[in-house]
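Our example copied in:
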Amino acid sequence: MTGRQEHPGTGRTLDHHGAHRVSFEEVARAIGVANVAVVDVADDPPGFRALLEAALAASEPTVIIARRPCILAVGEIRAYDRAIAADRAIAAERGIAAELATAPEEPPAPGLAACAPAGEADD
């Protein structure tokens, strides 16, 4: 991804609330890809090159996931992660499910009062 936006693999929504994190390596394995590798290309360029050459020479599909925090957003990402961890710690102390502690508060959808049964809508 580019542009510093969140995506299903980050575990955060676009407004940076905690969310379920999709594991792309698990998705690849679930659809039958046996050769799955997760690499940080910047940490090991020669290792990545060797992995890529082996994948291209293989007769079966290979998924290579290049994973590294965005250098422009790494400070913000760490701040979001600390905030989520703090919310979960407070929730645990209070006996609240961690998922509820990090769920974004959604305003009620507009017009729901019009859909309420007679006598239940706010005036």
Q: What stands out?
A: The CA atoms of residues 18 and 102 lie 5 Å apart. The beta strands are 35-39, 62-66.
